[in-house]
């Protein structure tokens, strides 16, 4: 099982352009079946708001054995009872929780996590943090068809949106990790950010899941 981590880990790449990436998705379903997606809290909030899905059902917490590509130094590891966990979209026998078993289409496509929107693309920055180019991840299982053109400007906007959230994400992880309660569970991390989220049915998460 591979891990969908857009900007946290170094990956070998084939150089591409600054303005475009030659790529076209052929809807093979690889990323929905064989990739572990690590959403941010804002991805989870968006999924709840747009789909009304229960985060306690579509989120799971995976450990180092499941996502060996993520380094131990990553600041979003949740620490609980001496073990490390990371928030992920739950998978079943068909693949991602949101993958329809019959149509093989994403049932949350418009609200899908940022990593799903960017995969299998990789951003490269200079040492000063300036944008250099996008490329395609290699050795991740995606066929990486090159018969299309993707403009990088919208991709970069998505990347900046994700980066803007990372500091707050790390702050929440630090709050969770400071809690030394012996009864703490990884799933308790959700309570730090889902309370009060408005759902499509007009209810709030705190009223539905408490």
Give the helix/strand layout.
Layout lengths: L1 E3 L8 E2 L5 E3 L7 H4 L1 E3 L3 H11 L3 H4 E4 L15 E3 L2 E7 L1 E2 L2 E2 L17 H5 L2 E5 L5 E7 L11 E3 H27 L26 H5 L1
Parallel strand pairs: 1-4
Antiparallel strand pairs: 2-11, 3-12, 5-7, 6-7, 8-9, 10-11
Structural features, described:
It is a single chain. By secondary structure, the protein is an alpha+beta fold. The protein has one domain (2-198). Helix content is 27%, strand content 21%. The chain has helices spanning 30-33, 41-51, 55-58, 114-118, 152-178, 205-209, and strands spanning 2-4, 13-14, 20-22, 35-37, 59-62, 78-80, 83-89, 91-92, 95-96, 121-125, 131-137, 149-151. It has a 3-stranded antiparallel sheet, with helices on one face. Strands 5-7-6 form a 3-stranded antiparallel sheet. The longest helix has 27 residues, at 152-178. It starts with a strand and ends with a helix. Residues 5-15 and 206-210 have low confidence and may be disordered.
What would a concise description of this structure say?
By secondary structure, the chain is of the alpha+beta class.
Largest sheet: 3 strands, antiparallel
Overall number of strands: 12
Instruction: Report the β-strand fraction as a percent range.
Output: 15-25%
Total individual domains: 1
**Strands ordered across the widest β-sheet:** 2-11-10
Q: Could you name the ranges where pLDDT drops below 50 across 5 or more consecutive residues?
A: 5-15, 206-210
* Helix coverage percent: 25-40%
- Mean pLDDT across all residues, rounded? 80
Shape: globular
Structural class: alpha+beta
Radius of gyration: 17 Å
Helix segment tally: 6
H/E element sequence: EEEHEHHEEEEEHEEEHH
* End-to-end Cα distance: 33 Å
């Amino acid at each position: 099982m591979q891990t969908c981590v857009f900007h946290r880990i170094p990956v070998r790449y084939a150089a591409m352009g600054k303005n475009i990436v030659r790529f076209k998705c052929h809807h093979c379903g690889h990323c929905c079946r064989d990739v572990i997606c690590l959403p941010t809290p804002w991805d989870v909030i968006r999924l709840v708001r747009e789909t009304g899905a229960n985060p306690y059902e579509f989120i799971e917490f995976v450990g180092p054995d499941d996502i060996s590509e993520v380094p131990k130094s990553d600041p979003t590891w949740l620490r609980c009872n001496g073990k490390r966990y990371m928030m992920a979209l739950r998978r079943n026998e068909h693949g991602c929780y949101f993958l329809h078993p019959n149509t093989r289409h994403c049932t949350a496509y418009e609200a899908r996590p940022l990593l799903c929107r960017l995969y299998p693309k990789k951003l490269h920055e200079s040492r000063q943090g300036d944008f250099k180019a996008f490329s395609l991840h290699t050795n991740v299982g995606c066929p990486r068809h090159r018969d299309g053109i993707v403009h990088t400007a919208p991709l970069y906007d998505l990347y900046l949106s994700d980066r803007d959230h990372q500091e707050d994400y790390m702050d929440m992880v630090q709050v969770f990790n400071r809690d030394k309660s012996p009864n703490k569970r990884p799933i308790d991390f959700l309570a730090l950010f889902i309370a009060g989220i408005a759902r499509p049915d007009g209810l709030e998460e705190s009223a539905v899941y408490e």
